[in-house]
């Protein structure tokens, strides 16, 4: 079966900024993939190239075996931009109907409104909707062509907790039909709860790619915490240099050590700092893995 989409060696520069630096990702049909990364990591630029909105300087995009432009033309892809403008004076139903008239094989408007969970404000003018409601209308517009692949750039950015919950409930219904989804997000919990796979970007590169559990394991998954009495300003560097430790943070005598090998680290800690107390070792959460992978730790320290 053809990939739902593939990105091969994508590179994009804006002047001196290398926004996307050799990104390759292949996604199979039915996968729900979260694209995670801090601000400026290159997520939106990657998405724009996937959608054919930006031309890569080099590399190739294929969507269901054809070019991005061809896939858009065929209605294979539905996209939801972060903040595209909606026609303020049109009602939600009118806008969905307008979009439907532009598609070759649109879903009935009523079905789109239902799938996106916007039926209750179908007759309201778009200009009267809250930011979160407008996001849901953008989601409806992405569904009009009944696409095989949905691409969403920070879909829940303007939504409150309840809006987010309802949005993901609609998404679940959509993905249960075997469709492929790529969504960019800053919310780690969303990646953890709704994605099968996480692609983590930093400085334009993919720094981790795999199931949520594997991404955690990529940082060897343990956090060692301890209180270090009599810590001095050199202590943090000394902790970071311990064998098995990939990163150390020390605040007011409380040490947090990201460990590649926590057994090695705890032995070394007790040897070098025999007065350390309140020691605990926990599995690293995705949040901690994310921070460890996306902050400027020394290269190679995260393996
Ligand atoms: N049109 C542009 N012109 C110049 N620089 C750009 C342009 N688009 C993006 N960049 C730069 O490219 C880099 C990657 O930006 P991009 O928007 O892809 O990151 P992102 O991961 O989506 O960030 P965010 O989470 O803030 O949306 C940034 O340094 C950004 O400033």
From TrEMBL:
It holds the Pfam family ABC_tran. GO terms for molecular function: ATP binding. It is found in: Cell membrane. Keywords: Antibiotic resistance, ATP-binding, Nucleotide-binding, Transport. The keyword Acyltransferase does not apply. Its main location: membrane. SMART domains: AAA (SM00382). This is ABC transporter ATP-binding protein. The lineage of its organism: Bacteria, Bacillati, Actinomycetota, Actinomycetes, Pseudonocardiales.
């Amino acid at each position: 079966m053809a990939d739902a989409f593939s990105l091969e060696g994508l590179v994009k520069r804006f002047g001196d900024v290398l926004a996307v630096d050799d990104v390759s990702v292949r996604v199979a049909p039915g996968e729900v993939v979260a694209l995670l990364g801090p601000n400026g990591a290159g997520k939106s630029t990657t998405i724009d190239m996937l959608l054919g909105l930006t031309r890569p300087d080099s590399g190739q995009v294929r969507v269901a075996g054809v070019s991005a432009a061809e896939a858009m033309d065929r209605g294979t892809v539905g996209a939801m931009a972060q903040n595209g403008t909606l026609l303020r004076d049109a009602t939600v139903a009118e806008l969905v109907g307008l979009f439907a008239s532009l598609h070759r094989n649109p879903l009935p408007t009523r079905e789109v409104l239902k799938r996106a969970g916007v039926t209750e404000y179908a007759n309201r003018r778009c200009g009267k909707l809250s930011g979160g409601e407008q996001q849901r209308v953008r989601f409806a517009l992405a569904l009009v062509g009944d696409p095989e692949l949905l691409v969403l750039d920070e879909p829940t950015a303007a939504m409150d907790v309840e809006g987010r919950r309802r949005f993901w409930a609609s998404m679940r219904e959509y993905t249960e039909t075997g469709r492929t989804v790529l969504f960019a997000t800053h919310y780690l919990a969303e990646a953890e709860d709704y994605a099968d796979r996480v692609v983590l970007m930093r400085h334009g590169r993919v720094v981790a790619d795999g199931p949520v559990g594997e991404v955690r394991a990529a940082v060897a998954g343990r956090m060692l915490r301890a209180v270090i009495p009599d810590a001095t300003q050199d202590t943090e560097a000394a902790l970071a240099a311990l064998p098995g430790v990939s990163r150390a943070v020390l605040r007011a005598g409380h040490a947090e050590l990201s460990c590649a090998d926590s057994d090695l680290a705890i032995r070394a800690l007790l040897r070098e700092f025999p007065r350390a107390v309140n020691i605990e070792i926990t599995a690293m959460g995705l949040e901690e893995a994310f921070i460890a992978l996306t902050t400027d730790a020394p290269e190679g320290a995260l393996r």
